[in-house]
Specification:
Largest sheet of chain A: 5 strands, mixed
Shape of chain B: elongated
Order of helices and strands of chain A: HHEHHEEHEEHEEEE
Strand content of chain B: under 5%
CATH topology of the domain at 11-142 in chain B: Rossmann fold
Distance between the termini of chain B: 90 Å
Helix content of chain A: 40-55%
Shape of chain A: globular
Mean pLDDT of chain B: 90
CATH class of the domain at 11-142 in chain B: Alpha Beta
CATH architecture of the largest domain in chain A: 2-Layer Sandwich
Structural class of chain A: alpha+beta
Oligomer: heterodimer
Chain lengths: 239, 546
């Protein structure tokens, strides 16, 4: 638990004269991420301890939501850093999809309950091939995003289509704006840092998707609107 | 897929016992509260490694929840290694490593022991419950197989794996991995290979590529293994086990320099694996790369501080390595290495005071270090302090004896050294490894740099000889022999060249010279690899001189 330096990326290349700025950033991000992890744990504890007053407190929910969001961003930043260092690869294993998704959902339970958002998991009994850590990063971010835009309901859905495992996050909000509805990989250069929404999460998601390959097939993400809930639908297609 | 309901049948948390290890009180408390909220009753928690390990020695624990980073001292990986190594945890128990990390392998540097699962922070109650639920039900479902593995009844474990495969799609990967591994353990490499290849035909999975590589190494297909592992590492630059196996394949295939490069890369990426550092150190030493070897021993010693793998041998090896490095080097770098060697050896004496021979092993190397820095008085003093333990060549530990002989050579006490090695080679007649060491020392009783020079000259001489340039060959071998006059192969090489030149020139003086070089080897022990060559050359020369 002590803020550690044993696991910082790239410590072996430290040199006072020749500062590798992205390495410095990565180290700092790493520390911030760990601190936020502590913060999030404390928030969970607090919610439990103060369960008379907190569950209805919108301020508390905002606090937890924003902390989650920050944490996800930092996880993604580190992931992208490792991608750039050619240090991140997908360790694909076979997983039982309903187990993976329900374990995954558990993390979001307190906040979902706090925000009074209905949640549904609809997964076929199938095995899928993916890197569980990387996919967790993607789904955390997507669910977090859905929490922000949905009205009452979020659905996590897993199906098998055309030889792909398709994991979808659907909500009943207003859906993705026209210019975001596309499939394929957003280019890192096209990320717009002025608009407030950098699509960093989407960039990370599509990077992770494309690390998943089988023969000629490569994973991808798709964004569109509609579905049973009528809001936005995020899909990650894994071969 | 018919048993998705299995995880929803709730675990009876009250039946199990728990151990929490974390240095933060708030975290311990919050974990305890979560566990209690599932009905857990028997929960123990500790801040530090030692009392936690102690607790496991006397109590049965079903589930260990251990934070990786515990501040100063042992970390979670050290605890895991110690618990498993000392068999303080049953196979049916579950060890969960809690980290803030997503890139686990690299951080932990784990090589032998891996936790049953990682939990990535932040952790909340629902998450923990789900995770424990599925781990406990997996454990229960696979218990019959694990029990047979514990009993080392591998054939039965194999048939259970086959039986479970169609029934338990949820654990398919575990079953396939275990099955292939069991075949491998039994030496049934063709079955193991078939499983890996079947998996790989479906999909390119890194664990199956690694397994296939392991089988290829075990069956002696080093080149194919190295090729496959090379591309695995290329695809997964964070797959530490693949680097280790690649290095093994390269080394066994005779490419020890490349093997060392791979291990260096792996240690750079994941610097905390003690066993890998040992491997690197030994490999670098055999590659004559003393500075890399010294660095790796240094790292081994420092990683040993909290590890179950700590050993006086690492200190001694570091001392020896630094001693070789500093020998005859009186520059400030040389001094620094010498000082470090002495400090390391003194530390070894303090850290392992009760080990047999610890002091005498230490002083023999210390003496050599002093000699290498031109301090014969200090060198002799170091030996005198343990003289009584070095006096009997018949009973001295052979490894220590060889090291002692090395020191004697350095102190110009060649006759004593040779006598000692003579006795030792008789005592070790059935130990090829030690015999080889004795031979090498007899051949090259000189410092490291000179040894390298003589070897280079020997290689040059052979090259020149192959181009039939006999005079240059004679000159080069003579130059090498001026450094290591008793080197068996060198003397024989030169003898061979002289005979060949005689055949072209009929100059009797050449035969006489050749005879001189054979005479130098009069005391060559029969066990020596060059002995038969000596005998045959002797005969040939007698025939020519008759």
């Amino acid at each position: 638990m002590t803020p550690d330096n044993s696991d910082r990326p790239g410590t072996s290349r430290k040199s006072a004269q020749n500062i590798d700025f992205s390495m410095v950033l990565a180290s700092a991000v790493h520390d911030m991420k760990n601190s936020l992890g502590m913060l999030l744990n404390s928030l969970d504890d607090l919610r439990r301890e103060q369960n008379e007053t907190i569950p209805e407190s919108s301020k508390f929910n905002t606090l937890q939501y924003e902390a989650e969001r920050l944490h996800n961003d930092l996880v993604q930043l580190l992931g992208i850093y490792r991608l750039g260092e050619n240090n991140l690869s997908a360790h694909i294993e076979e997983h039982f999809v309903p187990d993976f998704l329900s374990e995954h959902m558990a993390r979001h339970t307190p906040l979902l309950e706090g925000l009074d958002i209905e949640f549904e998991l609809e997964a076929e009994d199938i095995n899928g091939f993916f890197d569980a850590d990387l996919l967790t990063g993607v789904l955390n971010n997507t669910l977090n995003n859905a929490l922000r835009y949905t009205r009452k309901k979020i659905k996590l859905k897993a199906t098998e289509r055309d030889g792909y495992l398709v994991i979808a996050v659907e909500d009943d909000g207003d859906g993705y704006p026209e210019n975001m509805q596309h499939s394929g990989t957003p280019d890192f250069k096209t990320l717009d840092f002025k608009s407030g929404s950098t699509s960093l999460g989407l960039f990370f998601a599509s990077s992770v998707a494309s690390l998943h390959t089988k023969g000629e097939k490569t994973g991808s993400i798709r964004l569109h609107n509609g579905g049973n809930l009528g809001g936005g639908i995020f899909e990650i297609w894994l071969p | 897929m018919n048993d998705s309901s299995a995880t929803s049948t709730s675990t009876n948390f009250a039946k199990l016992s728990y151990l929490i290890i974390d240095d933060f009180e708030s975290f311990r408390l919050s974990m305890r509260e979560m566990l209690q909220s599932f009905g857990a009753e028997r929960i123990e928690s500790y801040t530090k490694a030692s009392p936690a390990i102690q607790f496991c020695a006397y109590n049965h624990v079903d589930i260990v929840l251990c934070d990786f980073n515990l501040g100063e001292g042992k970390n979670g990986q050290h605890i895991l290694e110690e618990l498993r190594h000392k068999k303080l945890l049953k196979r049916s128990s579950i060890f969960l490593m809690i980290t803030a990390e997503t890139s686990k392998q690299m951080v932990m540097g784990a090589r032998e022991y891996q936790p049953d699962a990682y939990l990535t922070k932040p952790i909340n109650r629902a998450m923990l419950k789900k995770r424990l639920d599925s781990l406990v039900s997996q454990r229960a479902a696979l218990l019959p197989i694990n029990r047979e593995i514990d009993r080392e009844n591998y054939p039965e474990a194999i048939s259970l794996c086959h039986k479970y495969l169609p029934m338990q799609p949820r654990y398919k990967t575990w079953l396939m991995k275990t099955l292939a591994d069991l075949y491998y353990q039994l030496g049934d490499f063709s079955h193991a290979l078939k499983i890996y290849e079947d998996v790989l035909n479906q999909r390119d999975l890194s664990w199956a590529s690694l397994g296939r590589g392991r089988v290829l190494v075990a069956t002696g297909n080093y080149e194919e293994a190295a090729g496959a592992l090379d591309s695995l590492v290329e695809k997964h630059p964070d797959y530490m086990e693949a680097y280790d196996l690649l290095a093994e394949a390269l080394e066994k295939g005779g490419k020890s320099v490349q093997a060392q490069k791979i291990l260096e890369k792996a240690s750079e990426l994941s610097p905390n694996a003690l066993l890998r550092q040992i491997q690197l150190a030994s490999l670098a030493a055999s590659n004559q790369d003393l500075s890399t070897a010294s660095q790796a021993w240094k790292k081994t010693v420092s990683l040993g501080t909290h590890s179950i793998h700590d050993s006086s041998e690492h200190y001694l090896a570091l001392g020896q390595s630094l001693s070789d490095l500093s020998e005859g080097d009186t520059s400030s770098d040389g001094h620094a290495s010498a000082d470090e060697a002495l400090a390391t050896l003194r530390r070894m004496e303090r850290r392992f005071p009760d080990e047999e021979n610890i002091k005498v092993c230490s002083r023999v190397v210390q003496s050599r270090v002093h000699a290498g820095q031109g301090n014969p008085i200090e060198a002799n003093k170091a030996l005198e302090s343990v003289a009584d333990q070095l006096s009997d060549a018949e009973t001295i530990d052979p490894g220590l004896g060889i090291d002692y002989a090395k020191t004697l050579f350095r102190l110009n006490r060649d006759q004593e050294a040779k006598a000692l090695l003579g006795t030792l080679s008789q005592r070790c007649a059935d130990n090829p490894l030690l015999l080889q060491k004795i031979e090498n020392l007899l051949d090259e009783p000189v410092g490291f740099q000179q040894k390298l020079k003589a070897r280079a000259l020997n290689r040059d001489g052979i090259k020149v000889f192959e181009t039939n340039n006999l005079d240059d060959a004679i000159k080069t071998f003579n130059e090498a022999l001026s450094i290591v006059p008793d080197h068996a192969a060198l003397n024989l090489n030169l003898c061979q060249v002289l005979i060949k030149k005689y055949q072209n020139s009929d100059d009797n003086a050449l035969l006489k010279q050749a005879q001189n070089h054979l005479d130098r080897l009069d005391n060559l022990p029969e066990q020596h690899r060059q002995y038969r060559r000596l005998v045959s050359l002797r005969k040939k020369l007698q025939g020519m001189m008759a």
